[in-house]
Structures are given as structure tokens and as C-alpha cells.
Write a structure and sequence with these properties.
By secondary structure, this protein is mostly helical. The protein has four domains: about 30-215, Serine Threonine Protein Phosphatase 5, Tetratricopeptide repeat; about 220-290, Serine Threonine Protein Phosphatase 5, Tetratricopeptide repeat; about 300-420, Tetratricopeptide repeat domain (Serine Threonine Protein Phosphatase 5, Tetratricopeptide repeat, Alpha Horseshoe), CATH 1.25.40.10; about 440-505. The protein has 29 helices and no strands. It has helices at about 1-10, 25-30, 35-40, 45-60, 65-75, 80-95, 95-105, 110-125, 135-145, 150-165, 170-180, 185-195, 200-205, 225-235, 240-255, 260-270, 275-285, 290-305, 310-325, 330-340, 350-365, 370-380, 385-400, 405-415, 420-435, 440-455, 460-475, 485-490, 490-505. Pfam families: ARM_TT21_2nd, ARM_TT21_N. InterPro entries: ARM_TT21_2nd, ARM_TT21_N, TPR-like_helical_dom_sf, TTC21A/TTC21B.
Length: about 525
């Protein structure tokens, strides 16, 4: 066995910086299933579902849901330090640093979990503005000490924590070291696959599938994490049918596994199968009545598919209640949903008023985050409350002197209020920054509005509108149909673009313009 591992290492790790994996048949062919079973513990379906739930909800940014789920199931796994490790990460991601440290302190004396605890404590501490630098230095010293003799599973747990903290490149380093120590551990292989899927490198994403294959070549083996990984891989590759095939296997064998149904619903939306996606969302809500993603889809269905704004108002209330129950401390989720639907509701004032409360909640949870101040300002602009909006945009300048989005919001309010000279000065400043920050659709649009109000030639205005439309269209080019697509699409922005184009349209069609007979005015 010793020589087998040495040969595998020589074959797989052909470069220092990246893992290059050979076909499975090359290096798994000499290993029997018994060898693999001795190295990798087999989990029951219920256990797989438990760990996959925790992994999914922390990864997808639902830490409070993960905490509640883990605490509910903790009686069954009360002696398992891995549960406490997940709990600590979820609490840290939720912003509850003291509770997070408490859970880490309970398991950091365990040799296999010590490294992951100290690495996570450094990561969590540095999220705070005024963290204890002396304590962090002590943690880092312990990391250097423990890392010299860390086992494969110790390295794996550290990579897992870093991954769930969205430190993907650092997670890769630890995961590759763990893989060098244990080539056949399915958990390590699967985590390496997830790290590649989260990478911005398309080449790594395309090769991630290799890590989700079963190293035992056992076709009957059912691994939930690998099924979910394969589904995500095919989704990234725009192969919706193949992704649905994998998800359906998970749904059949794990009928109460909510993440599989959520992903199935999103894939059906990506395939533009709205009605099937609606059915799946109902299944999600039958398992968990506060399932945020299911309610978000149903609101999307009402606003974009059926156009039922009256029912949409009720659904926004349901969404708000769901967020208050499922993720009451997540500023990002409140902000994301208010941002998405504020551009899709056609400026329906009742809906905007309800979404404004979500944006206010996000800002109250993270008052120093300029992104949430900008989001609040934009919703106020949609409500024709430009004087209040400008105060929120100005807040971003207090935290960052070069807040481009904040300045754009201020210019938009100045144009609404007829302050053309001030808007022109700010636009000129942003235009000078373009070589550094790049062009943006919003800046070109605001320039077009200012040019029109100042009486510039029509062609100049149209050229700026064309530029704004082209820049905006590029944002959606590589996005699949889904929540992110609709947010990037920003329907309200497109409507405002169309209105500006119409300002430049002639009042009457040119005399030489040919019209079909049916369209000609009958004398």
C-alpha cells in the first residue's frame, strides 16, 4: 500500500501549483473496495442528509437556518465535534462572534480539530474592525505549531472551515495538502470539487466533475454531496437537462432534502419551465413553510409571469415574515431581495413601501455598509423621494470618498430636482475617473439625461443612450435565467432608457416612411 500511494502522488501532482488528476482507472484500478471502505466511513442516508443540509445552508449564505437546523438535530450528534465546528462557523457568519468563539473553544483541544479552530478564529476575528491583534497573533503562532504535524483529516476540516467562510484559495491550499496525505477520501475529493466550482477560473470549474466521481467505482454507492456537486457542475456548464437528472436522483432518494428541491426549482426556472418550478416551490414550502427561496420564486412568478401585483403585495409580506423567521440577522439577504424586486414591480408604490422596510432592516443590521445605504437610496428614488434618497447616498461618501455608486445616486437626485449645474460638475468628475473605474451604463445614461435637459443635439443624446444600453446588456450576457439574472437585468433601468429614447423620437413619422395599408389613417 505504501508504494501504491507513492506512485499515485507521483502521477497526480505533476505541478507545484495546481492539481492535475489522471483518469480514475489509472490509479484506482489496483485498489479493492475493501481498501476504500477501511479508509472512508460509510454514512447512512439520514446522516448524509444531515451533513449536506448544514453544508448547503452555510455555503448559500443562510447561517441562521443552519444554526437552527444543527441545534434541532444536535441531540442525535451531541458528542460529534464536527457539529460544533459547523455551528461555530454558522454563528460566525451570522455575526455572533462571541458564541462562535465559545463553540471553537469547546473543541480546539481535540487534536484533529485544533488547526481548523485556530484558523477559523483568525478569519472570524479579522472580520471585526477593532479585533484583538494580540489574540490573533497567539492564534497564528498556534497554527504554525500545529500545521507541522497535521493529519489528513485535520487539514480537511481546516479547508472545510475556510470554504464555508468563502476563503476559497486558502481552502484549496489545505485541501490539496489533505489530498496528498489521503488520495481516496471521498470527503476530501468532494470538497476539492466544490472549491473548484466556486473558483473564477473556468478551466478549474470545467474539471471539477472528476472529484465527484466515486473512487471505489461502485455504481450503487449513493453520495448526496457528490450528486449535488455534479448537478452544480452541469448547471455551470449550461447543461440543465443533465443537472436535473442528478437532482432528480437526489430528490427520489432523499425526498425531504430541501436543498435538492430548491436547486430543482432554480433549474426549472433556468429552463423557463415556470409552471413546473411553481409546483416544486410548493413542495419546498410543504417541507418548510418559511423557505425563502421558494417564496422569492413565487413573488418572481407573480411579478414577471402573471403580472398579478395585488397578489404580489401579499407575497411581499410573506417574504418579509419568512426573512424575519429564517434569517433575522442577515443584512445581505434583506438587501438582496429588496434590490431584486424594487426593479421588477413597475414602481408599484405599495410594493415599494414594503420593500423599503426590508432595505431599512438591512441598513439597521449593517449601518456602516455603504452598499445598503445605496440600496436604500435607490428605492427612495423609485418612490419619488429624492430629498431623502440624497441623504443616504451622501452616507456612502462618509465611509468612502470615492464611492462611485453613491455619487451616481446623488447625480440622479440632482437631475430630478433640476440642479443641472451641480449634476454636470459631478458627472465631469466621474468621467475623469473612467480610465480607472471603467465605463458604466448608469454613467452613460445620466450623461444622456443631462444632455437632453441642457438641449444637446439629439444624435449626441442617442449616442449616449446607445452606449448605456450596450454596457447594460453585457452584464446579462453570461448569466443563466434565475434570481441573479433578473437582478442584473434591472427592468426599471431599461424602462427609463426607453423613455429617454422616446424623448428623441419625432412627433410624426417622416413623410417618406412607408407604412402598411392597415396602419395608414383612413380619410
Amino acid at each position: 500500500m505504501k508504494y501504491y500511494y507513492r506512485d499515485c502522488l507521483a502521477y497526480i501532482f505533476q505541478t507545484d501549483s495546481h492539481l492535475v488528476c489522471a483518469p480514475r482507472s489509472t490509479f484506482f484500478s489496483t485498489v479493492t473496495n475493501n481498501t476504500i471502505n477501511n479508509n472512508v466511513p460509510v454514512m447512512s442516508l439520514k446522516e448524509q442528509e444531515f451533513w449536506a443540509n448544514l453544508f448547503y445552508f452555510i455555503r448559500e449564505g443562510y447561517p441562521h437556518h443552519a444554526v437552527e437546523y444543527a441545534e434541532k438535530e444536535q441531540k442525535k450528534y451531541s458528542t460529534d465535534p464536527l457539529v460544533k465546528l459547523h455551528l461555530a462557523i454558522a454563528l460566525g457568519n451570522e455575526g455572533k462572534l462571541q458564541d462562535c468563539i465559545k463553540h471553537f473553544s469547546e473543541i480546539k483541544e481535540n487534536e484533529e480539530y485544533a488547526l481548523s479552530c485556530y484558523v477559523s478564529l483568525v478569519t472570524m476575528s479579522k472580520r471585526c474592525k477593532n479585533y484583538d491583534s494580540i489574540a490573533v497573533k497567539q492564534y497564528e503562532a498556534k497554527i504554525r505549531e500545529i500545521r507541522r504535524h497535521a493529519s489528513d483529516m485535520s487539514l480537511y476540516y481546516t479547508a472545510l472551515c475556510l470554504f464555508l467562510c468563502q476563503k476559497y484559495e486558502k481552502a484549496r491550499d489545505y485541501c490539496e495538502k489533505a489530498l496528498k496525505a489521503n488520495l481516496l477520501c471521498r470527503e476530501i475529493l468532494s470538497l476539492n470539487g466544490w472549491i473548484d466550482l466556486m473558483s473564477k477560473d473556468e478551466n478549474l470549474q470545467k474539471k471539477a466533475i472528476r472529484y465527484f466521481e466515486d473512487p471505489s467505482n461502485d455504481e450503487e454507492a449513493l453520495n448526496l454531496q457528490c450528486l449535488m456537486g455534479k448537478a452544480k457542475y452541469f448547471q455551470i456548464c449550461n447543461s440543465v437537462t443533465s443537472a436535473l437528472d442528478k437532482i432528480n436522483i437526489a430528490v427520489v432518494h432523499f425526498p425531504t432534502f430541501l436543498p435538492a428541491l430548491i436547486e430543482k426549482m432554480k433549474l426549472q426556472l433556468g429552463a423557463q419551465d415556470w409552471d413546473q418550478a411553481m409546483d416544486t416551490s410548493q413542495r419546498c414550502l410543504s417541507i418548510e413553510r418559511t423557505c425563502v427561496d421558494a417564496i422569492v420564486f413565487q413573488l418572481l412568478y407573480l411579478l414577471c409571469k402573471t403580472g398579478d401585483r395585488n397578489e404580489g403585495k401579499r407575497k411581499v409580506d410573506e417574504l418579509a415574515n419568512s426573512l424575519d423567521t429564517s434569517e433575522p440577522f442577515s443584512a445581505e439577504i434583506y438587501a438582496r431581495n429588496s434590490r431584486l424586486f424594487s426593479t421588477l414591480c413597475g414602481r408599484e408604490q405599495t410594493i415599494l413601501q414594503k420593500l423599503c422596510k426590508l432595505a431599512e432592516k438591512a441598513l439597521s443590521l449593517a449601518p456602516t455598509d455603504s452598499r445598503y445605504a445605496v440600496n436604500m437610496g435607490r428605492i427612495l428614488v423609485l418612490q419619488d423621494r429624492s430629498k431623502e434618497a440624497i441623504r443616504h447616498f451622501q452616507m456612502t461618501l462618509e465611509t468612502s470618498d470615492s464611492s462611485v455608486t453613491g455619487l451616481q445616486g446623488i447625480i440622479q437626485c440632482q437631475l430630478v430636482q433640476g440642479m443641472l449645474s451641480e449634476a454636470g460638475t459631478q458627472l465631469e468628475f466621474l468621467r475623469e475617473l473612467e480610465p480607472t473605474i471603467g465605463k458604466s451604463a448608469e454613467l452613460s445614461f445620466l450623461s444622456a439625461v443631462l444632455a437632453r435637459k441642457q438641449g444637446a443635439p439629439k444624435q449626441q443624446v442617442v449616442n449616449l443612450l446607445d452606449e448605456a444600453f450596450e454596457l447594460h446588456s453585457k452584464r446579462c450576457q453570461n448569466l443563466q435565467l434565475g434570481f441573479d439574472y433578473f437582478e442584473a437585468l434591472n427592468v426599471d433601468f431599461i424602462v427609463q432608457l426607453v423613455k429617454e429614447y422616446l424623448y428623441q423620437a419625432p412627433q410624426q413619422p417622416p413623410a417618406s416612411m412607408w407604412l402598411p395599408g392597415a396602419c395608414r389613417r383612413q380619410e
